[in-house]
Amino acid sequence: MAKNRPTFSCSECGWEASKWVGRCAQCEAWGTMVEYRPTPTASAKALAPTSPATPITEVVASASERATTGVGELDRVLGGGLVPGAVILLAGEPGVGKSTLLLDVAAEISRLNTDPVLYISGEESASQVRLRAERIGAMSPTLHLAAEADLATIIGHVDANPPSLLVVDSVQTIMDTSVDGAAGGVSQVRAVTAGLVHLAKSRSLPILLVGHVTKDGSIAGPRVLEHLVDVVCQFDGDRHSRLRMLRAVKNRYGPTEEVGCFELVDEGINELPDPSGLFLSDRARTVPGTCVTITLEGRRPMPVEIQSLAVAPAGPPRRTTSGVDSSRIAMTVAVLQSRLGVDLDRKDIFVSTIGGARASEPSTDLAAALSLASAVADLPLAPGVLALGEVALTGEVRPVVGLEQRLGEAVRLGFTKALIPAGSTVKIPDGITVAHVVDVAAAVKEVLPL
């Protein structure tokens, strides 16, 4: 028999090595290699099945009908609600609002069901969780709290009072005493997640897990954690902005293109079915250097206002951006200089979005170019105008995807004119006129009296 030799595993990503090394070769983290001895496993023996296999046409689908969470934006991301037995992992940076969101969800579900909802806190005491629940208005007599860090004890709570939903905050703080290692280690996270998945599947119990993230934004723990769960949601947002976005990066029961929007306030977290108010300034007056575009977050159209300033420099010219892709802005500046002769070489250029929005997709190029041209000319664009299109290095305005969705959102927000790439074959909704532009020069002539 082979000797049971020690193995070294990275506590951050799970990479294994036969000897200790100072730096993980996979995630390049220093000092994360931990020694453990793998337990020998015996070969599996055949056992009689507990139930015979059933033809797929005879499987009852009603047993997996979705149940609403009471939070519309979360239902949108999940594909319609919670599936019985689904394990959902919610990951995000510290302080982004993960615990607040799940506590609010737990309270909403407890109000919709007579069965209790069990909230397990591995990081805070029950009294601390209650203080947050009072602040955000998540008090409910059927919402049960327990501060536990042992997997077996959590299963005991479920046996004693079967809940309609189990929330575990967080999976990195729970331990399985039958497995060696500290809480949050590779072996512990793997064992705890496997145990919770088995609990969910065997009892058709939906489980919501909170997951920590590493410095680079990836989910802490081994990659098998993401493979074991059914849904992986990323909850993110700018720390200095009220906006929070929920995205499903993996979903076995629905699409991964949907995005949910929330607003983090002192009283808790609110849904934002219409977040356009955060991304648009007052449109009653037009200001030079501003242009609106519509981006697609998954399948959801989102308005974004791009603002630009071009001023005489006090020293060497600077290029400062916020919320936009700096490399695409640099290319847009080059196109305006070479194709239109706009003097930007000797100016400080500042380009930003408002409300913490992100404008990183190519479809925002034309809006950025028009806002820069408007800032240089010190002339506002015509009111009620937005721009959609990718700008090539030749100055050509190229087509973008989802144009019909973007125009529909523009009509809903009250815009009356849209600049779109020439040759776009799309059904134009009522209430808006479109101008087909071939290049940036044509777009500038369309909206600026130069």
TrEMBL record:
Pfam families: AAA_25, Lon_C, Zn_ribbon_LapB. Keywords: ATP-binding, DNA damage, DNA repair, DNA-binding, Hydrolase, Metal-binding, Nucleotide-binding, Stress response, Zinc, Zinc-finger. One of its GO terms (cellular component) is cytosol. One of its GO terms (molecular function) is serine-type endopeptidase activity. ATP binds at G92, E93, P94, G95, V96, G97, K98, S99. Residues 348-450 are annotated as: Lon-protease-like. A motif (RadA KNRFG motif) lies at residues 250-254. It comes from the Bacteria. GO terms for biological process: proteolysis; recombinational repair. Residues 63-213 form the RecA family profile domain. Belongs to the RecA family. RadA subfamily. DNA-dependent ATPase involved in processing of recombination intermediates, plays a role in repairing DNA breaks. Stimulates the branch migration of RecA-mediated strand transfer reactions, allowing the 3' invading strand to extend heteroduplex DNA faster. Binds ssDNA in the presence of ADP but not other nucleotides, has ATPase activity that is stimulated by ssDNA and various branched DNA structures, but inhibited by SSB. Does not have RecA's homology-searching function. Plays a role in repairing double-strand DNA breaks, probably involving stabilizing or processing branched DNA or blocked replication forks. The middle region has homology to RecA with ATPase motifs including the RadA KNRFG motif, while the C-terminus is homologous to Lon protease. This is DNA repair protein RadA.
